[in-house]
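Q: Structure tokens for this one, please.
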Amino acid sequence: MIGGMMEVSKGTFALKPNGNIMANGDLVAMPLRFSGAIDDRTMDMPGIDLFKVKEGKITEVWLFSDDQNAEDIFWGK
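A: Here is the predicted structure, written as tokens:
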């Protein structure tokens, strides 16, 4: 998934931690800031990545952005 985002954004896609990682049982939430550029479109916004972890491996992922509509436009959706 990240590899595809890097390819589409020509290497400009970036994720930066934006707070403390939080865990509750097998769920881990990571506040972050993500940014990138595709042609004339740019994106820079906060979000939360939520992971389900089993036996030390990520088994499920949910991604939440501050502005889903703006993110969809950025990715061309």
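A few notes: The beta strands are 14-17, 22-24, 27-38, 41-54, 57-65. Residues 2-75 form a domain with the Nuclear Transport Factor 2; Chain: A, fold (CATH 3.10.450.50).
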